[in-house]
Amino acid sequence: MSFMFRKFHSVIGQHHKRITVFTLHQLRMDRVPAATAGVTRNASSFKHENAFIDGKWVPAASGKTFQVINPSTGGVIGSVPDMDAQDTEEAIKVAYKAFQTWKETTARERSGVLRKWAELCTQHKDELAKLLTAEMGKPLAEAAGEVAYGTAFIEWFAEEARRVYGDIIPTTTNTRRMLVLKQPLGVAGMITPWNFPNAMITRKACAAIAAGCTVVLKPAEDTPYSALALCELASMAGMPPGVLNVVTSSRDHAAEVGKMLCKHPLVMKISFTGSTQVGKILLEQSASTVKKVSLELGGNAPFIVFDSADVDAAVKGLMGCKFRVSGQTCVCANRILVQEGIYDKFVQKVAETMDRELKVGDGFEDGTTQGPLINSKAVDKVQGHVDDAVIKGATVVRGGKRLDGNFFLPTLLSHVTQEMRCSSEETFGPVAPILKFKTEEEAVAIANVTSSGLAGYFFSQNLSQIWRVAEQLETGIVGVNEGLVSVPESPFGGWKESGLGSEGSKYGIDEYLHLKYVCMGGI
Ligand code: ADP
What we know:
By secondary structure, this protein is of the alpha/beta class. It has helices at residues 2-26, 85-102, 107-123, 125-136, 140-160, 199-211, 224-236, 251-263, 276-286, 311-323, 343-357, 376-391, 421-424, 440-448, 463-472; strands at 51-53, 56-58, 65-69, 76-81, 167-169, 177-184, 187-191, 214-218, 244-246, 267-273, 292-296, 301-305, 333-339, 395-398, 411-416, 431-437, 452-453, 455-459, 477-480, 495-496, 499-500, 513-520.
């Protein structure tokens, strides 16, 4: 523990100054003329200090702004417009107008714009990754991974745009023909979180745009710059004004922006990724106009390791599943259930691997695997879960405490029970709590006891057990002998209170399409 603590301080101590210089000076350029494709630029030139509506960079009507903070250094990166309900309504009207022409484009035209957008994101991937690390804190290598993942959604939906097929239904009367058309819904309102500032935007917006919808999107207040950089690249790719609009707002105005999107009659669809609590508010608000709603909400993923598992593979799977983005993903392992025969061996191996592989530090520092948590409130929550577990009898095997700023030591807890908060609530931090179980039935029962149902993982080499458990887990995503499973080609969505609908895959685009039955008579 103390070794990791010292290592952390040496990393931050040596490089804090350099990083502050990067975020405050290199990233301070605000209004930069649009880039020409093919020109390499630094991250600061993609940093926009205005929102993006109708293809223009605009301030809030009120003139208000709010600051964006680097969670690693606490330094101010810059500020963006603090928009409210009035600005949002303006953006909705613009998007509605743009929809009238965007819906008339051919699938091939939409595909072409998306493909060009993906090419530009690839060309400028380094600048996007740096911007992302500066505002969100995740290690640069992870940010680069997210940009590649986010770009893969643009590419995927460029392809899917051309594969939206209707149907012809065998007739029931010879004088009739029966068809099913798929048509775009209209304006889609979107609200995204800070943990994937790039990919959560492309996963939603590209499905909508490919279908022929237009978008008004509010990014998380912590990470607006990645969203705005994507707008610039979309514009460079030839996305017409009004098709993609980004409204930035502080936390103070998030509720009114959300309410406007949910209640406005010109908005046909709401797509949200974030907490279950906010998702429920948006679902309720959307009832007034009976909107189609997609929700990707909180998880409480079980990660089960059976006696039959390849323990080394399970440890490797857990490291990626638990500690990626410092444990701040909704599909992170939250409860690790290990069968009694291998419990001690597994805990020991995880501890050794953590010592070897995890390094806390600033995201720009070479070798950092664990960046900061997003803010001090998140650190308080994680510390609260650890303290609660310790009071109720858990053993701290590694870590267990906060460091300076928003950093938290990667933590391993053994002797965890179901009564502890870390078992029943999503921790959203680098804490691996390990529970012991005796039988498969018991493990499945514990896994399913929660009201969440996003992801579940298990490691086993027993074929019948693999089928049984994969079918019994009440989650929308199951990883079998795999800890990282999300790809654009596969559906992402939760059961129970983890959400509604699916994103990505061939199913994702349906969330933005109406089905229309056309009955042609008199034939
Ligand atoms: P977190 O606590 O991790 O930030 P939230 O669900 O609160 O998760 O935030 C996810 C997104 O939802 C962010 O863009 C945030 O601004 C937005 N948000 C928060 N509260 C509301 C609300 N009442 N209505 C609409 N959007 C909201």
